[in-house]
Amino acid sequence: MEIRPIRSLNDYNNALERLELIFDAKQGTTEGDELEILTILIDKYEKENFPIDLPDPIEAVKFRMEQLNMKQKDLVETIGFKSRVSEVLNKKRKLTLDMIRKLHEELNIPTDILIKEYQIAK
Asked: Where is the HTH cro/C1-type domain (predicted)?
């Protein structure tokens, strides 16, 4: 077992190949230990080199609505009038602080996603 930092794309690809070979290693074995360490190194490299940005707040709301089989009318109590729900979901109106709080509480969407800046449709 030779463990080295992942410093390049080539190192990363080699680490992924090795990970695939030892993926089913038993915990507590030499290969199991290597698997655990390799996973940590790969995760660190990916976070530094392939960061994933937070999703658009409105797309996150729509996604959560889809997961919960909700319709626009189901957000009336959370956001306000039916027309306001439509405006928000069509990005014609920004989320207010009160809406963000309610969406966080009722749909369990993280506030750091809901407060992210987004463009209003013109």
From this structure: 61-114
- pLDDT for res 33: 93
Is 103 within 8 Å of 114 (Cβ atoms)?
A: yes
Q: Which one is the CATH code of 57-114: 3.30.420.40, 1.20.210.10, 1.10.260.40, 3.30.310.50?
A: 1.10.260.40
Tokens, residue 19 = 């990970």
The predicted structure's pLDDT at residue 60: 96
Q: Which two tokens stand for residue 10?
A: 């080539």
Distances (CA, A) of 65 to 95, 115, 117: 16, 18, 20
Model confidence, pTM: 0.62
Of 58, 98, 54, nearest to 77 by C-alpha is: 98
Rounded Cα distance, 118 and 57, in Å: 7
Residue type, 67: Q
72, 82 contact by CB (below 8 A): yes
